[in-house]
DNA sequence: TTGAAAGCGCTAACAG
DNA sequence: CTGTTAGCGCTTTCAA
């Protein structure tokens, strides 16, 4: 194990003064004589003293740590959000402890427990796709432990959250398809209990209505947000008699999986099937054809979540709020037909 | 702020016994009578007691935290490695504290400082691309604080590390190009001080030699690993008189940037320019044409780094080792010419 | 079988 | 101006 770093006690002994004198001198307390202060600060500098956060945490009952739970760590969407959270956390002198639920309810529950046991000061969470009951967050509410949800949220009447303007975004996608000549617009949704799934479905329906199109249940498919399932959902759409000429995928994974399956069948994007995703900037430009999509402001989503978190830290009684972030429909080749 | 969780003291008072009795009962210490033990454990369960890691940490001088520094958080490569680290850390009951250097030497130095100040028990690090001096790691060496490097490494005679078999991998790429009829094989390298850059350059040269090709300095370009610079490097290659018919990009970012630039110019991949990257599984299949590449076992790289870390924790005096992970050349369309 | 006390590193109220 | 003391939550001798 590593050698112990220098402590106040060590320095006090070395200088033949008391611990509290050293402590005060390091904070430039006016009570301490300038000479004493100088001597102590000099020594601290030489010895590379840095206060022990464990001791401070124990004393002040705060760890300066935020627990962050995400469905996975390996997609750009979440890592970018985490970056956003971190940037704000750092400004406040906080660290983040990241935990991945791997889209599993059980692991999410475990993570909540573990992080609380670690004495993080609160949690910033995106629900796993399996999560449809929320008792594991009750202890946080009961004890007024700061909690913020982002993207996939719940209990918004009690907990602050950050989401995209899902309804409007999905509506605009549908209309965009229509304007490009598509009439049989399909939607591949996610688990029905997730807000993102419900809201985007709502927007999809509104869009159909706005464009004077009928709702055709055959054009609605669901999947569990894994690439494999998304491919199957796409296959079902293409195999059924539904004959879609456009597909809107609920998120990154689904959109890319759909693209793969469409291409595998030798169908042309956008001419046979137009495709739009719901994703963030990075991926969409790499694929071919470049993917039209709703781009999430992911970094900002993370920042906003962190800001709401600190709002609660600083203002414990504050009522929950929901921040709705504007998204942007970025039109690329996957949805634009030549004529 | 959140209400305090229950402490041993609280429970001791409630039961009218001493703190040490409670402490012992919870550990099933044989000294405590079975009835007492049962009563105490029952109460602990009801009150959802969990030991305060700050107190434990202070007492035992260990935080059960590992600091991890990566060049960025938003690429699949690093997030996947982090997942690997986390999986092993979890098994040991450790948490990881992640810090991103954003490829900046200054931020890396800062992160080392900050993490040490947080009293992590050690560091697992991938150097930023700017890092060419290493004094900021000296304090770790001096104090025998566990340290492991991965991918971009340094001081391998003093510090354990995990790397890919860069030389052999790069050699095999070059030969693969040759077998596909390419004769003017270019390499876009990274900063010369990075081991990954040097080793892959070595392998590239070895491959040229093995195939009986001459080294042509015009076919060697460098960049700083950012997408923008990589595009410029590609442009220089294509604009110069070098006339490459194959490009090997040192990593993900570079390979994708090269692909973009090649396509932008209306050149065909692989027929005009064959392309191979050095990346991990995920991205390569999404792009078009699918990218031939050396796939890193990223998750395993993280796991191995963590294992080496715990080797040091458990065995402080152990000499440094280097784990060299096998990579795999996965051949896809971007490098295979029809005839 | 249980309790008292010291100590991990630090702050702050209280003395001197 | 500086020192003493108590206490944050816990483990671990040492006493009883």
Structure notes:
Two copies of one chain form a homodimer. Chain A has 13 helices and twelve strands. In chain A, α1 crosses α2, α2 crosses α3 and α5 runs parallel beside α13. Helix content of chain A is about 45%, strand content about 15%. The mean pLDDT of chain A is about 90. With about 350 residues, chain A is α/β, with parallel strands linked by helices. In chain A, the strands form two sheets. Chain A has a six-stranded parallel beta sheet, with helices on both faces. The longest helix of chain A has 17 residues. The first copy, chain A, folds into three domains: about 45 residues, no CATH class; about 140 residues, Response regulator (Rossmann fold), CATH 3.40.50.2300; about 140 residues, 3-Layer(aba) Sandwich (Rossmann fold). Chain A is elongated and about 90 Å long. Chain A binds a DNA duplex (16 and 16 nucleotides) through α2 and α4.
Throw out a few tags for this protein:
homodimer; 339 residues; alpha/beta; 6-stranded parallel β-sheet; 6-stranded mixed β-sheet; 13 helices; 12 strands; 44% helix; DNA-binding
In brief, what are we looking at here?
The structure is a homodimer of 339-residue chains. Chain A is 44% helix and 17% strand. Chain A has helices at 8-15, 19-26, 34-46, 53-60, 76-91, 105-117, 138-142, 166-179, 195-210, 227-239, 252-264, 281-284, 298-314; strands at 65-70, 95-100, 122-125, 147-150, 160-164, 185-189, 220-222, 246-249, 274-280, 292-296, 322-325, 328-330.
Detail the topology: elements first, then pairings.
2 copies of one chain form a homodimer.
Chain A: H1 8-15, H2 19-26, H3 34-46, H4 53-60, E1 65-70, H5 76-91, E2 95-100, H6 105-117, E3 122-125, H7 138-142, E4 147-150, E5 160-164, H8 166-179, E6 185-189, H9 195-210, E7 220-222, H10 227-239, E8 246-249, H11 252-264, E9 274-280, H12 281-284, E10 292-296, H13 298-314, E11 322-325, E12 328-330
Parallel strand pairs in A: 1-2, 1-3, 3-4, 4-5, 5-11, 6-7, 6-8, 8-9, 9-10
Antiparallel strand pairs in A: 10-12
Helix pairs in contact in A: 1-2, 2-3, 5-13, 8-9, 10-11
Chain A binds a DNA duplex (16 and 16 nucleotides) through residues 7-9, 17-21, 23-24, 27, 30-33, 36, 51-52, 54-61.
């Amino acid at each position: 194990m590593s050698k112990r770093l220098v402590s106040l006690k060590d320095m006090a002994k070395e200088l033949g003064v008391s611990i509290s004198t050293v402590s005060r001198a390091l904070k430039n307390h006016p009570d301490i004589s300038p000479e004493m202060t100088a001597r102590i600060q000099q020594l601290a500098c030489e010895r590379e003293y840095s206060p022990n956060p464990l001791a401070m945490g124990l004393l002040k009952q705060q760890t300066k740590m935020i627990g962050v739970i995400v469905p996975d760590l390996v997609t750009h969407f979440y890592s970018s959000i985490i970056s956003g959270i971190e940037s704000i956390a750092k400004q406040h002198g906080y660290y983040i402890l990241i935990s991945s639920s791997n889209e599993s309810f059980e692991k999410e529950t475990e993570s909540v427990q573990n992080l609380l046991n670690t004495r993080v000061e609160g949690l910033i969470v995106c629900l796993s796709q399996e999560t449809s009951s929320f008792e594991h967050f009750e202890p946080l509410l009961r004890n007024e432990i700061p909690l913020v949800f982002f993207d996939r949220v719940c209990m918004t009447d009690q907990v602050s959250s950050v989401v995209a303007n899902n309804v409007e975004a999905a509506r605009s996608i549908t209309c965009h398809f229509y304007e490009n000549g598509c009439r049989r617009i399909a939607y591949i949704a996610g688990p029905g209990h997730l807000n993102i799934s419900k809201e985007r479905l709502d927007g999809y329906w509104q869009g159909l209505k706005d464009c004077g199109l009928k709702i055709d249940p055959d054009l609605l498919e669901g999947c569990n947000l894994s690439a494999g399932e998304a491919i199957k959902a796409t296959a079902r759409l293409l195999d059924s008699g539904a004959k879609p000429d456009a597909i809107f995928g609920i998120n990154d994974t689904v959109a890319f999986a759909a693209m793969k399956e469409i291409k595998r069948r030798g169908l042309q994007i956008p001419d046979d099937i137009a495709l739009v995703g719901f994703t963030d900037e990075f991926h969409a430009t790499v694929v071919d054809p470049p993917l039209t999509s709703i781009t999430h402001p992911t970094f900002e989503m993370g920042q906003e979540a962190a800001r709401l978190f600190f709002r609660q830290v600083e203002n414990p009684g504050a009522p929950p709020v929901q921040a709705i972030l504007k998204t942007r429909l970025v039109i690329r080749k996957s949805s634009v037909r030549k004529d």
